[in-house]
Amino acid sequence: MTVLNEMKLTFLSRSANEGFSRMAVAAFFAQLDPTVDEIADIKTAVSEAVTNAIVHGYRDTIGTVYITARILEGGRAYVKIRDRGCGIADVKQAMEPLFTTAPDEERAGLGFAVMQSFMDSVRVYSKEGKGTTVVLCKTLGVRMGR
Amino acid sequence: MAVELVQSPSRLTARLSGEIDHHSARGMRESIDRAVTGLSPRELELDFSGVGFMDSSGIGLVMGRYKLIRRYGGRLYLSGLSPQLQRVMKLSGVDRLAVIEQKGQKRG
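ok -> structure tokens follow
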């Protein structure tokens, strides 16, 4: 699919960057003239993926989080969130609602459920010791028939 | 201040403001829990009308406060939920743990 526009963002896995990164991604997609709901959906999904990278990928350490956001043909928003952290041993299990490895921090275990609910597609690639990549896609403007 | 605590005879209201994510939830949780532990109110209300954004960290915040207030035999109330917040809440079913109060209007 043709890439119409692209931006890249790299930042340290500090929790203060959760807000910064979702707002930067939302600002990039503003050029697609999204609805308030669409932008809220993307912000929420990005926030979940970035928080996973910070809380789980780089648990007890500080690393770099890499985001690539693309605008594809047909009003399709693409966001890739990647870390080089610990990776996920069992992706299927990690994606099950309520599964969490951080109950003490009041993580509800619903990050992937939120991503799946708010985006059209969620793909997860992970290798233990290598890191995790989450790819989120959503076509904007479909519900409005634009 | 991300949490403003208002006390009435039977109810403690925590007016949350700003964005709720993993970064901000910790501070909110600490100030609410300090007040609940000190006052042991019968009713705890989390007022979300000043919250513009929330991810699943907000669900953890609600679930944790539900567990805490239940320890004191109290009830949890949620108010001021915008459509975006309601969607996140509904996904988790945590809206079934609490009484949802529809005030509708933004506080001044």
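Chain B touches chain A at residues 19, 21-25, 29, 53-57, 59-61, 63-64, 83-84, 87-88, 91-92 (CB under 8 Å).
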